[in-house]
Design goal:
Number of domains: 2
Order of helices and strands: HEEEHHHEEHHEEHEEEEHEH
Shape: globular
Structural class: alpha+beta
Largest sheet: 5 strands, antiparallel
Strand content: 15-25%
Strand order of the largest sheet: 3-2-1-5-4
Number of helices: 9
Distance between the termini: 67 Å
């Protein structure tokens, strides 16, 4: 190997070593009764943060309380971190391309297994509830998001890497860079499988950050703007922010009003419900829209969304209405809001 990949291996080892002593992951909880928020921090050796308060809240909804001794991962994880840190240093000292590729491959497998285990842990705690709990909502589960935001009753849960998690990601990125550098220098027969592995890793990482619409739970989810329960799935809408948080609405009027009062540029994606198929959300920019007095929505938006132009035209012809695209629809709501003011 050249000197740069060896340096990258050592820096990756140092990053992992530091991660063993700082929080790896965090789940922030926000609710009106806790204006400063609650946080659950996950370290290599145990959980920290507002554990006692969170355990008290979990008791009311039937979730198991959190205790370090219930997780074998906290006994194994520090040793695994030490193993990979040592492996990276040894690979740099031995100065072997095969050791580099092996280190990278094992680290990718370790990362995938760790995230799967974390998801399984969240699933078990969020779904295996005490049926005799003080608060029981039929069909409701309390699994926090793996990455991003999720609304759990009146609590908003935001899950993301903490300092240690970002150091883990940095270590993986450094290894990936070292592999790319050496793969370009290697023979073609070596470069092909290595680049395939790099491509798979990149695809996996990118898919972890992908967010889409969340199903709307009728008569359970509340509109983020007017706070009314969402009762008609055909008129529901959502927006996701650049931070991965998702807000649900019972009416496009509420969506646009909510966005206008928020931070400029906060929205990343818009989703609307297909009027012909109840509670089926799709990308709003691909839709066709009809504003009509025959569509009675909760807050007077009175707009039906369709996935095809043909369906929108058929609906519009019945009442001599006009078919709009997403940009035109946004402008019409903006103009209406200006006139109201």
């Amino acid at each position: 190997m050249t000197i740069l990949p060896r340096i990258l291996l050592v820096v990756a080892a140092i990053s992992l070593g530091i991660s063993a002593f700082v929080p790896l992951w965090r789940i922030d909880l926000q609710a009106p009764q806790y204006p400063e928020g609650l946080v659950l921090q996950i370290k290599a050796t145990g959980i920290g943060g507002d554990v006692d308060i969170i355990n008290g809240l979990n008791h009311y909804i039937g979730m198991k309380t959190l205790h370090n001794e219930d997780f074998v991962e906290f006994k194994v994880l520090p040793w695994l971190i030490a193993f990979f840190a040592i492996l990276f240093v040894v690979s740099a000292v031995i100065n072997s391309r095969k050791w580099l590729y092996t280190s990278f491959g094992l680290f990718v497998v370790f990362g995938v297994v760790a995230m799967v285990d974390f998801w399984r842990w969240e699933y078990n705690y969020g779904h295996n509830l005490d049926p005799n709990a003080a608060i029981v909502v039929p069909g409701m589960a309390y699994q926090p998001p793996l990455i991003g935001f999720k609304q759990l009753l009146n609590f908003g849960a935001y899950s993301m890497p903490d300092l240690g998690g970002w150091l883990f990601i940095a270590a993986g990125a450094l290894l990936l860079l070292a592999v790319i550098i050496e793969a370009r220098r290697g023979k073609s027969k070596t470069r092909v499988p290595v680049m395939l592995m790099v491509g798979c890793c990149t695809l996996l990482l990118s898919s972890c950050g992908t967010t889409g619409p969340e199903p709307v739970l009728l008569n359970q989810d509340a509109c983020a703007y007017c706070k009314m329960r969402i009762a008609d799935g055909r008129l529901a809408a959502e927006l996701s922010t650049n931070k991965g948080r998702i807000y649900k609405f019972d009416d496009l009027h509420c969506l646009f009003a909510f966005e206008s009062e928020g931070e400029p540029g906060m929205t990343k994606h818009y989703y609307v419900s297909d009027f012909t198929g109840s509670n089926s959300l799709f990308d709003a920019s691909n839709g066709w829209y009809v504003k009509s007095n025959t569509v009675k929505s909760a807050m007077g938006g009175n707009t039906a969304a369709f996935t095809t132009q043909e369906a929108a035209l058929d609906f519009a012809k019945k009442n001599n209405d006009t078919v709009l695209r997403w940009a035109d629809l946004r402008n019409s709501f903006a103009n209406a809001s200006t006139h109201e003011q």
